[in-house]
């Protein structure tokens, strides 16, 4: 009897202990890179080299997280943001990311920039089970939760943006004769594919010319002349900023007025529309998901006021027309949201779980109505854009918010 | 002869290096070797990865050193040979499922042929003109790799992801450590072969051409043959380094093999000491670690800091690591006498 009683008491104690410890664990769980006082986040950016203009994104994120820390951090923990230069070189990216993971021991790698660099580190991070969080590239392949469960995108993919243009054209101009000018690389080809997918069966009859150019060409005037000769009435410009500006300018010089749609990548007022000439750019269409820091229509927007105050205080002297500051702010805010949702369970698995359960989240810098949604099968956070038309010296939004969801591969 | 040609044919940048001064003594070699073998057992995987890259770039710098220090020809196109080697290995591994170790000799042979063929037209050029011709090769390569015609094999701009090999025979070591020792074995083999090459009849012919082409041909050296041979050997070794680089980084893409890489290798050669083979590893360390140090000093001005450091090196020790080693040797000799 006594023995039985003791056994019962003992097992009760064991059960109680087990309960205690499991509830204690549920309260606080950490992987490498997180502790009671700190969360370590890694990042790589091209601070030098051909793409160094994007380095502003890294600096913005650093400044944003400093602001978070000044306000007391996230759930009482400070963010330690470690960012390295990869010079836009894939071998250097691998070296720096391995340094972040193995030497600095970060919890996650956040917003690494560039399609080649991200491709180079994707396999490594997935095999190490380290989150590759909100990559800064528009390629479509990042939305692949089945094969790469530790990689998640952020901005709308090029293909989904192109689908939105296709949807809009099918609705508004179903008998259009379309010419496509695209850059001959993954960026341009993603847009081309998205357009064709979006037009579906009508693609072959609507697209009358596909013209590609090399990024190394000094000028694309000859391509524009060739396109004009085919006499299309819609020109889709899937070009990077320099070439986008050249296209709009040359088209106007030729006295030709097709309906022009330019990619969001080259929709910057400061670096494309102004050099192309405001007169020449009237009526050009594009799509947007984020607000433009240079656009006066957001001057009284409470969310953009927050952004503006942040830039004044933490990045004094920065150029507010630079889209990279808007971008970095939005991405960093999404990171902060995910870490907040993680609570005290700061494991890598939980970071991915929370990153995949964002519901209608709206960073300050996104257009009203554009929302971030993710799920275990949808690793493409932003998939909505709104059409806009260039008028005067700024973009004017029109129409509904359009979704361009591309199913994961 | 015009003034320009005078400057060009003078070739003062490559001064004659006696062949004994091209290597290290046995004692020093053994110490370096021991350090290279033991260190990985004590450090983290990330450091082992960096050491692997150190050896790989050292091989590429060594290859350039044979060409410039040995036969007196310039090249700013080593990144092209490196890229061909890397893509050869990557394509053979991923599309044909060939064992990684077997892809390296193939990469070496293909690059040897490529370099040998490129050496033919290069024969007519010397000095800065040759440097420009090779420069053209380096700028053309990344775009050639993007060509739609090759895209099925090269993966175009997206590049190719390469699977990293496990240690064979169930050896209890990590992939990184295995790859390091694998690279080390190849590097030692190539180093010994290179030293022997430069000490051989061919090596003497290289150096005779470097010192005075006319005198060399008067002595009966087939100038055309040995110049192209030097190009071929250099390209072949660079190709093997490229193949190893592709396996270590697990990824090849055109953006990894731009002219910046060629200039880095050239920089490594100068910092290590032109014509001094052991300097290759010092030069390689310079191009891998100094940019990281510069970034640590100032993120925004990393390029400027790197420039200042490079300037200091060139200003204080214009002959690179070789000069430092010579001074150390003389000091040691003095101490012995006393």
What would you say this structure looks like, in words?
The complex is a heterodimer of chains A (409) and B (338). With 409 residues, chain A is an alpha/beta fold. Chain A has 14 helices and 13 strands. Chain A has two domains: 38-156 and 299-378, Response regulator (Rossmann fold); 158-288 and 388-403, Response regulator (Rossmann fold, 3-Layer(aba) Sandwich), CATH 3.40.50.2300. The radius of gyration of chain A is 24 Å and the shape is globular. Chain B has a single domain (40-337), classed as ABC transporter involved in vitamin B12 uptake, BtuC (Orthogonal Bundle). Chain B has helices spanning 3-10, 26-42, 45-71, 78-96, 100-122, 127-146, 151-154, 175-199, 201-211, 213-218, 223-249, 259-272, 279-297, 302-316, 321-337; strands at 160-161, 251-252. Classes of the chains: A alpha/beta (409), B mainly alpha (338). Chain A binds chain B through residues 47-49, 83-85, 87-91, 94-95, 98-99, 101-103, 115-116, 119-120, 122-124, 184-186, 214, 216, and chain B through 44-47, 49-50, 53, 143, 146, 148, 156-159, 161, 245, 249-253, 255-256, 258, 260, 291, 295, 299-300, 302-303.
Topology:
The complex is a heterodimer of chains A (409) and B (338).
Chain A: H1 2-27, E1 29-30, E2 38-45, H2 55-70, E3 78-85, H3 90-103, E4 108-110, H4 115-128, E5 132-133, H5 158-172, E6 178-183, H6 186-199, H7 203-206, E7 207-213, H8 221-230, E8 234-238, H9 241-253, E9 259-262, H10 269-276, H11 278-281, E10 285-288, H12 302-314, H13 323-342, E11 345-346, H14 348-355, E12 384-391, E13 394-403
Parallel strand pairs in A: 1-11, 2-3, 2-4, 4-5, 6-7, 6-8, 8-9
Antiparallel strand pairs in A: 10-12, 12-13
Helix pairs in contact in A: 2-13, 3-4, 5-6, 8-9, 9-10, 13-14
Chain B: H1 3-10, H2 26-42, H3 45-71, H4 78-96, H5 100-122, H6 127-146, H7 151-154, E1 160-161, H8 175-199, H9 201-211, H10 213-218, H11 223-249, E2 251-252, H12 259-272, H13 279-297, H14 302-316, H15 321-337
Antiparallel strand pairs in B: 1-2
């Amino acid at each position: 009897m006594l023995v039985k009683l003791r056994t019962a008491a003992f097992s009760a104690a064991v059960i109680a202990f087990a309960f205690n410890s499991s509830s204690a664990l549920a309260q606080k769980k950490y992987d490498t890179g997180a502790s009671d006082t700190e969360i370590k986040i890694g990042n790589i950016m091209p601070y030098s080299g051909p793409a160094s203009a994007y380095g502003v994104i890294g600096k913005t994120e650093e400044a944003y997280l400093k602001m978070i820390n000044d306000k007391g951090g996230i759930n009482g923990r400070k963010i330690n943001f470690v960012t390295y230069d990869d010079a836009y070189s894939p071998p250097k990216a691998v070296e720096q990311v391995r340094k972040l993971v193995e030497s600095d021991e970060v919890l996650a790698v956040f917003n690494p920039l560039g399609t080649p660099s991200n491709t180079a580190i994707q396999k490594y991070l997935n095999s190490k089970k380290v989150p590759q969080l909100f990559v800064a590239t528009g390629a479509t392949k990042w939305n692949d939760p089945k094969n790469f469960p530790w990689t998640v995108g952020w901005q709308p993919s090029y293909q989904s943006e192109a689908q939105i243009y296709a949807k809009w054209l099918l609705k508004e101009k179903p008998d259009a004769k379309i010419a496509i000018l695209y850059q001959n690389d993954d960026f341009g080809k993603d847009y081309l594919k998205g357009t064709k997918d979006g037009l579906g069966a009508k693609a072959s009859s609507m697209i009358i010319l596909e013209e590609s150019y090399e990024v190394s060409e000094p000028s694309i005037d000859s391509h524009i002349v060739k396109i004009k000769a085919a006499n299309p009435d819609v020109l889709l410009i899937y070009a990077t900023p320099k070439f986008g500006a050249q296209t709009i300018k040359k088209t106007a010089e030729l006295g030709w007025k097709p309906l022009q749609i330019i990619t969001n990548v080259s929709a910057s007022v400061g670096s494309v529309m102004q050099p192309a000439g405001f007169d020449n750019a009237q009526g050009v269409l594009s799509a947007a998901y984020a607000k433009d820091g240079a656009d006066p229509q957001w001057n009284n927007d409470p969310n953009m006021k927050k952004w503006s105050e942040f830039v004044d205080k933490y990045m004094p002297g920065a150029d507010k027309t630079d889209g990279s500051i808007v971008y970095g702010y939005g991405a960093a805010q999404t990171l902060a949201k995910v870490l907040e949702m993680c609570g005290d369970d700061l494991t890598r698995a939980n970071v991915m779980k929370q990153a995949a359960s964002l519901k209608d989240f709206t960073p300050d810098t996104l257009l009203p109505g554009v929302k971030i949604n993710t799920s275990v099968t949808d690793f493409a956070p932003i998939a909505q854009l709104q059409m806009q038309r260039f008028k005067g010296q700024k973009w004017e939004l029109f129409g509904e918010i359009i979704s361009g969801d591309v199913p994961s591969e | 002869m015009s003034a320009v040609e005078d400057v060009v044919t003078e070739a003062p940048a490559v001064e004659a290096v006696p062949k004994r001064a091209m290597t290290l003594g046995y004692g020093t070699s053994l110490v370096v070797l021991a350090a290279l073998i033991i260190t990985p057992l004590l450090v983290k995987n990330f450091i082992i990865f960096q050491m692997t890259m150190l050896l790989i770039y050292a091989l590429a710098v060594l290859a350039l050193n044979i060409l410039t220090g040995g036969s007196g020809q310039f090249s700013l196109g080593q990144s092209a040979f490196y890229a061909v080697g890397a893509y050869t290995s990557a394509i053979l591994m991923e599309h044909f499922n060939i064992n990684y170790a077997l892809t390296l000799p193939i990469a070496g042979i293909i690059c040897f042929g490529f370099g040998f063929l490129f050496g033919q037209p290069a024969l007519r050029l010397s000095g800065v003109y040759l440097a420009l011709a090779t420069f053209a090769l380096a700028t053309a390569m990344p775009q050639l790799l993007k060509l739609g015609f090759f895209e099925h094999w090269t993966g175009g701009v997206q590049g190719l992801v390469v699977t990293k090999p496990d240690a064979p025979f169930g050896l209890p070591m990590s992939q990184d450590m295995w790859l390091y020792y694998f690279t080390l074995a190849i590097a030692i083999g190539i180093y010994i072969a290179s030293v022997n090459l430069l000490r051989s009849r061919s090596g003497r012919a290289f150096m005779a051409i470097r010192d005075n082409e006319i005198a060399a041909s008067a002595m009966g050296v087939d100038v055309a043959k040995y110049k192209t041979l030097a190009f071929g050997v250099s390209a072949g070794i660079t190709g093997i380094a490229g193949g190893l680089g592709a396996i270590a980084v697990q990824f090849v893409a055109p953006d990894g093999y731009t002219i910046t890489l060629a200039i880095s290798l050239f920089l490594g050669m100068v910092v290590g000491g032109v014509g001094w083979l052991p300097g290759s590893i010092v030069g390689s360390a310079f191009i891998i670690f100094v940019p990281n140090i510069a970034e640590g000093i100032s993120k925004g001005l990393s390029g400027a800091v790197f420039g200042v450091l490079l300037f200091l090196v060139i200003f204080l020790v214009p002959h690179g690591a070789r000069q430092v080693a010579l001074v150390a040797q003389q000091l040691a000799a003095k101490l012995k006498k006393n």
